[in-house]
Every structure is written in structure tokens, then in C-alpha cells.
């Protein structure tokens, strides 16, 4: 095992290439040991000695710097390096590496929306990669837990509701103002759904899932008109949750479909891991509580482009060298464009099926 660290004792070496290699390996070792400050110092020292012509090692070292900076809490510096690497990318392999780097930085920042953007761009490059789809599904689930998503949805509900309902008129003819209701987390919301829905799926009570200040329950809900307004308000929130939940479920379904195709070419540990992940996804998909007809529709839509021959070609990992502008255009599609391509047809079809709101995975 001692020979494995030979590069840490190469300081006396006079060969420039060996010195650079030793410093790079020392940085890699320190990073693996989670000594990020030491790793950053090694990478920075190596970068100072690197000639401009050694582009490959320069990219590797700068990536190492960015990852260390992210772990050290210097996220903006890490993102700046990643952006430079992206500008200098000349092939799809470079771009994939940069997007993975940016994804790692945003994971460290717990910025779920940016994580989703990175994954959508990675999927644009690698449409048949099941692991990116699995990460996207998990990111959509995480999005529903983030305070930012909840607060933005809450604000949008308030704006939409207030635009059409400036005040509520009571039986005495007086107007009563309202406050936006407290929105629940993904888990709290759907756990309480069963107790707050009637046979037709409409909200008939708010006492079971509205507590604390800011609840619409302070209005006179004994009046039919107030019940209708409250149900309309809450329906907007449920639709937003349902929309993201469908994207998560659809991404899990596509992951499973891709893994099923991949297993035909796998054996040993790779196959074992594949089957294990498929079982985990099966549990996740079932926990959404979708009806069989809806699930079949999701499977059909998300697997419409899956042909074994195409999958085999994609898995060969061809590196495409193209101009920077053309390379950038491969992944510049907005989140709206990505979701329109992959989920719009699905959302419209489920709407026609009158798909019920999905329940939260446990």
C-alpha cells in the first residue's frame, strides 16, 4: 500500500511532467480523504506550473479546485470556475463534466431548482441515461419539500385568488378580508388529503388540515359561497403539487424502462445493482397511488422513443466535437421547453383521464 502514495514523495523529482502529475495526484488523494483545504492548495500549486498547452490536465485541476471550493463553502468561486470551463468546452464530454460539476455545487448549496436545470441539460445530452432520470425524479420530489417552492406557490395562489376575490361578503353584507392559508409540505399535504376530500375528490372541510394563523378557516365557512371560494383556493395549491408530482413519477417510470432495457446487456454486479434499483423504483411508483390506467399511460408516453438499438448507440458514449456555439445550443433549452417536450403530452392526457391527485411516497 505504501507504493500507492509514491507521488507524495516526488518533490525531489526534476522532471516537470512528473512534478505536475505528483501534485495532481496529491490533490486527488487529499480530496478523497476530505482534506479539502490541502487538496485545494495542491491543485492551485499544480495549476501555476501547468503550461497553457496542457488543456486536459488544466481542466481536471480546475474541476478539482471548484469541487474543493464548494466543500469549503466558497460556492461563488466554484461556480465561476465551472462557468469558465463551460465556456471553454469543445465537445460533449467536456460539457457533461461541467454540468456534473455544476450539479454537485448546487447540491452542496441545496439549490433544488438549479439542480433540476443541470439534470435537464444532462438529459438533453444523454437522453437514455437512467441515472440522470433517477436523479431528476428525486430532485422533483425534493423541490416539493423546499421552503422556496412552497413560498412561491403560496404567493402565486394569493395573487391569483386575490385577483378574482378581493373580499368575501358575509351574511350581514359586510366584506371580510382574508389571509393566505398556510401551505403544507408535500408529505403533510397528501397525508391529510384523505381526511379532507369528499367522495368526488372536492375539499369539504379545512379544519383537518388548516391550523395556525393565516388560515381561511377564520371566514364564515358555513356559507356555501365561502366553501366554494375556499375549495377553489386550495385546488390551485393541489394542482401545483400534483403537477410536480406527476413529473417525478414520470421520471421514475422512464428510469425503470431504461434500466429494463439495459439489463439485457448486463451481468454480475452491474445486473444486481440494476435489479435492486428497479425494485426501489417499483416501490416509489406504487406509493404515488396512481390508477392502473394512468400508470399505463405514463409508461407509454415516457417510453415512446425507447428502441434497444438507439439505447445501445447512446451507451457507447460517443464524444462529439463541435463548435462552442453549437455545443451550447444542445443544452440551452429552458426548463419550460424541456418539460413541454417530456411532460406536456402526459399532463394533457392525464387531465382528460380526470387523473386523481397523486399521494405522497412514504
UniProtKB/TrEMBL annotation:
One matching Pfam family: DUF5588
InterPro entries in the cross-refs: DUF5588, TPR-like_helical_dom_sf
Alphabetized PANTHER family for the sequence: ZINC FINGERS AND HOMEOBOXES PROTEIN 1, ISOFORM 2
Record-given protein name: Chromosome 8 open reading frame 76
Organism of derivation: Crocodylus porosus (Saltwater crocodile)
Lineage start: Eukaryota, Metazoa, Chordata, Craniata, Vertebrata
Gene: C8orf76
Amino acid at each position: 500500500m505504501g507504493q500507492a502514495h509514491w507521488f507524495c514523495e516526488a518533490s525531489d523529482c526534476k522532471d516537470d511532467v512528473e512534478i505536475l502529475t505528483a501534485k495532481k495526484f496529491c490533490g486527488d488523494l487529499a480530496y478523497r480523504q476530505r482534506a479539502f483545504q490541502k487538496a485545494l492548495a495542491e491543485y492551485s500549486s499544480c495549476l501555476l506550473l501547468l503550461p497553457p498547452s496542457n488543456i486536459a490536465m488544466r481542466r481536471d485541476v480546475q474541476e478539482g479546485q471548484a469541487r474543493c471550493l464548494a466543500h469549503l463553502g466558497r460556492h461563488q468561486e466554484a461556480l465561476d470556475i465551472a462557468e469558465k470551463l463551460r465556456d471553454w468546452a469543445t465537445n460533449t464530454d467536456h460539457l457533461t463534466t461541467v454540468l456534473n460539476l455544476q450539479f454537485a455545487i448546487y447540491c452542496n448549496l441545496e439549490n433544488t431548482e438549479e439542480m433540476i436545470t443541470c439534470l435537464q441539460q444532462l438529459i438533453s445530452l444523454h437522453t437514455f441515461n437512467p441515472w440522470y432520470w433517477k436523479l431528476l425524479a428525486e430532485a422533483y420530489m425534493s423541490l416539493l419539500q423546499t421552503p422556496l417552492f412552497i413560498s412561491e406557490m403560496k404567493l402565486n395562489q394569493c395573487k391569483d385568488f386575490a385577483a378574482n376575490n378581493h373580499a368575501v361578503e358575509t351574511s350581514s353584507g359586510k366584506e371580510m378580508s382574508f389571509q393566505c392559508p398556510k401551505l403544507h409540505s408535500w408529505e403533510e399535504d397528501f397525508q391529510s388529503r384523505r381526511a379532507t376530500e369528499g367522495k368526488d375528490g372536492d375539499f369539504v372541510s379545512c379544519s383537518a388540515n388548516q391550523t395556525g394563523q393565516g388560515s381561511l378557516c377564520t371566514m364564515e365557512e358555513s356559507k356555501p359561497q365561502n366553501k366554494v371560494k375556499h375549495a377553489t383556493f386550495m385546488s390551485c395549491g393541489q394542482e401545483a403539487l400534483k403537477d410536480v408530482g406527476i413529473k417525478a413519477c414520470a421520471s421514475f417510470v422512464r428510469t425503470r424502462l431504461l434500466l429494463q432495457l439495459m439489463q439485457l446487456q448486463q451481468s454480475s454486479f452491474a445486473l444486481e445493482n440494476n435489479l435492486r434499483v428497479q425494485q426501489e423504483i417499483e416501490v416509489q411508483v406504487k406509493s404515488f397511488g396512481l390508477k392502473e390506467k394512468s400508470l399505463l399511460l405514463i409508461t407509454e408516453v415516457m417510453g415512446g422513443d425507447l428502441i434497444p438499438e438507439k439505447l445501445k448507440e447512446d451507451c457507447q458514449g460517443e464524444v462529439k466535437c463541435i463548435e462552442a456555439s453549437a455545443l451550447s445550443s444542445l443544452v440551452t433549452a429552458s426548463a419550460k421547453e424541456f418539460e413541454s417536450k417530456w411532460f406536456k403530452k402526459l399532463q394533457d392526457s392525464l387531465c382528460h383521464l380526470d387523473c386523481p391527485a397523486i399521494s405522497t411516497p412514504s
